Amino acid sequence: MVPKIHKRGKRTIGLLYYLYGPGRAEEHVDPHLVASWDHAAPDPGRDTEATYRQLQQLLDQPLALLTDDQRAKPHVWHLSVRNGPSDRTLSDEEWGDVARRMVTAAGIDDPDQGAGCRWVAVRHADDHIHILATLAREDGYRPDLDRDAVRVQAEARLLEQELGLRRLKPGDGTAAQRPTSAERHKAERQGRERTAREELRETVRRAVAGAVGEEEFFGRLAAAGLLVKTRVAPSGDLLGYKVALPDDRNKDGEPVYYPGARLAPDLSLPRIRERWSADTVPQGDVTVRPLRRPAAPATARRSTAAVAWQALLIVEQGEDGLAAAHIAAAGEVLDALAKTSAAHTRSDLQQAARAFERASRSRVRAVRGHDRALRQAARDLVHGGPALGRGEDGASTAMAIDMLFFLITAAAHWHARKGHAQQAEAAQQAAEHLRSAYRAAAVHPLAVLHQRGRRLSRPLLQRQTAVLREAVPLLAEQVLAEQGWHALAATLADVEAAGHDPVALLADAAGRRELGTAESISDVLVWRLRRTADLPADASGMPTTAHSGTAPSTGLAAERGRRSRQGR
Fold first, then answer.
1. For residue 305, which of 511, 509, 565 has the smallest C-alpha distance?
2. Cα distance between residue 166 and residue 161, in whole Å
3. Is pLDDT at 355 greater than 90 in this prediction?
């Protein structure tokens, strides 16, 4: 149940015309009263003798008793209360009780004192009601509306429990604006799966991901097919922007534009500019932007995995402002990865990015600048282009998703510690979508590694078992029982063949982050080892000589192993 207090108005009759009218897109059905301050209040929706003017005059009557100084300006208070699509349809009697509870909670009416404001609750759809009140108590005092929004939200949480509705998490005012009923009905008529507002929000988010300035940002919006209008000051300075879908038009055939701030709080031009200004790195007297040549898709994904791994430390242990910045930048990485993903992972990655959008904002102000590496990773993903489903592109995608899963999970834990219930839930939802995307991306490369592991000679497999027991004695038996053990054994053999110390690298890979949320510890360790040892994510083309017998112990490989151990 979502209560929303709208901007106060000056004309009672104007709001009545809207509530009882057909709506902006003929979406209002059977408008009628479900409750009011007086059981005898006329209902123009059901009583053919009643008029809007009669109802307006009764609602405004207490205002006539007040002087101009005493009247609230503007005086029309407007609250809508909406249920979710999965909630059951409430009866008129239930909605009437909801209305009475809401006006009492807000301070509009006080049944105990019998001296509240006059109000009506109009229902013109199955899933919501509108409450209109005139801000003049009949005893001459002004209503106490201090913190009315907080109080109606608290009442909504109680009503959800009592009426058996979906229990929503308490918010903090940083969520994106929900589509209106008119927007939803319009989308249904046009055969859209989502409203124009939702489509625009996602497109703008993807355009922001990794962008470094206004020219690139607006160029991406145009390339995505959006109509863009900018607001310019007399001085020529750009003040803001708004966007529209070419085929989303009003009754006059004009495009319906949405300002960035109306799509999401962090998509206003000033908030976007905060990201760009933080990307500049002072060097002496000159300020430069860190730019790279476009990386190949696989290289961009390996870089993303490495950066996500480092960002975990900041989210888990850094100051709140830095953690908030890295969480916000993680949203850019998800948007960029979804935009460039292969077909078999695209849907889940898009769902992960959409869910995490809510987790990317909170009341903790992000301290930008230190999140530059994540934003660069998003930029590399975008400029690297779409990845293929197989080969190194596909395997490095699995590696990146694996690392991002733990970063997003860390973000969920951070939000939970801060009491950000909606954000924590959104991050958990994103993590579940990442699990699904990972399964799709990892099935082929892990199958290749599994087969290579099963072909290891018995002495070599025994040596990798000994490495496992020495590096992670508490996890060894669990890993050996997992289906992914042979893939890990093949990776350990590759690590050793590349001249690294497999015991040291495995102990480090297992010890640096918790593994409790992993479906398969073996899989996680495979990707961490292959990234740390700079091994190809796709092992299908690797030589198998080291797997046929013993790993090399002399020459260049042995020297690299000695340097690796000394470096640690």
1. 509
2. 8
3. yes
**Distance, CA of 43 to CA of 51 (rounded, Å):** 8
Residue 330 contacts residue 356 (beta carbons within 8 Å) = yes
Arithmetic mean of pLDDT, 202-209? 96
Measured between alpha carbons, how far is 568 from 553 in angstroms, rounded to an integer? 19
Residue 560 has pLDDT above 50, yes or no: no
Contact (CB, 8 A) for 233 and 239 = yes
Q: How far is CA 247 from the centre of its chain?
A: 26
The closest of 447, 335, 440, 448 to 389, measured between CA atoms, is: 440
In order, the DSSP letters of 530-557 are: HHHTT--S--TTS--HHHHSPPP-SHHH
Q: Report pLDDT for 288.
A: 38
Coil, helix or strand at residue 129: strand
Q: Confirm if 488 and 530 have CB atoms less than 8 A apart.
A: no
Task: Give SS3 for 376.
Answer: helix
The tens digit of pLDDT for each residue in 222-233 reads: 999 999 999 999
Predicted confidence band of residue 326 (pLDDT cuts 50, 70, 90): very high
Global pTM value: 0.75
**What is the rounded CA–CA span in Å between residue 430 and residue 424?**
10
- In three-state secondary structure terms, 506 is helix
Sheet holding 128-134, edge to edge: 2-5, 76-82, 128-134, 118-125, 32-36
CATH architecture for segment(s) 2-163: 2-Layer Sandwich (3.30)
Q: Check whether 283 has a pLDDT greater than 50.
A: no
